[in-house]
Amino acid sequence: MNLLPHRQTRPPVRSPRYDPVKKYAAVILAMICFSLSFVWFKVANQVYGPLTIVFLRLGISVGIILVFLTATSSLHRPDKTDLAHILLLSFFEPFLYFMAESYGLRLLSPTVGAVIISMIPLVAPFAASFFLSETVTIRHISGIIVSFAGVTLVVYEIGAGMTASPLGILLQFGAVLSAVGYTVILRKISSRINAITILFYQSLLGTIYFLPFWLLFEAGFYFHTPFDTEGMLAIFKLAFLVSTVAFLFFIYSIRQLGITKSNMFINLVPVFTALFSWLILNELLTVQKMAGILIVILGLFYGQIDAREGKEIPSQ
């Protein structure tokens, strides 16, 4: 009889470099897709209305996710508390966010829209302070002031006055507030529900929220519009690469990195958008606009230095 103590075998240890690379690669890829969404919306909006673009984008995304969920049997059934959170989550984004962003982008260039959306990382800590007991510092406030100065340079051309629509700017800031509400609620449930389930429910409910508005304002125009290959391809890219792939990456990054660190990468969106707008849409970038974008990014990074060095937002 063997009297020696039994040696327990340990599972192999995964390389510590793998997880950080995966986390940051996911959030950077999400930002690239989010940047391209401003360009693809402009392409689709040449043919289709904003409600049609969002409604089809969400509907196609629901179909793609449903196929995946059926094949993998990975749909999670939320309890009553989580269902209430998902209903509110979907109301903030995609409904309110896309409603404000879509109509705002009709009045703004992709670059201007992206610069305003990049304010999300600085506004988010104020919501986290109220709902998640995070601390708002002088750096956050200073960063907002610096970033607003940069936004002013982007939308107000010296010698020409306001070059961007005030209503468009207001709508984009409405999208910013909606995105902040979304991330706060998402942080509460992302540790209990898998990302693909969250994405499925938010896309499905978003489609339902948009349906009556689409039927009332744009359905008739859509059915009388000839099929446009380029416009529909842009909508499919929005549905698959942004509303599905990018959101999966972003939900994953919020669960792994937290609200503050994940939102920090939104700083890259105006840079990518300016580049893609120049390459794809031949958008003119003046020296003043480039300086404004740089000031916005500097303000964003300055306002988050203490947040990145501080504690992570706790799971709720």
Explain what the structure shows:
This protein has 316 residues and is mainly alpha-helical. The protein has one domain. It has 13 helices and two strands. It is globular and about 55 Å long. The N terminus and C terminus are likely disordered.
Q: What's this, in brief?
A:
The protein is mostly helical and 316 residues long. The chain has helices at residues 18-45, 50-72, 80-105, 110-117, 120-132, 138-155, 166-189, 195-217, 219-223, 229-257, 259-264, 269-280, 287-309, and strands at 156-157, 161-162.
The rounded distance between the terminal residues' Cα atoms is: 52 Å
- Unreliable parts: 1-18, 307-316
- Give, in order, the helices and strands: HHHHHHEEHHHHHHH
Number of domains: 1
Spatial strand sequence of the major β-sheet: 1-2
The tally of strands reads 2
Q: What's the number of helices?
A: 13
Which secondary-structure class do the elements indicate?
Answer: mainly alpha
Mean pLDDT rating:
82
Q: Strand percentage, roughly?
A: under 5%
Question: Over all CA atoms, what is the radius of gyration?
Answer: 21 Å
Oligomer: single chain
Shape: globular
What is the helical fraction, as a range of percent? over 70%
Largest sheet: 2 strands, antiparallel
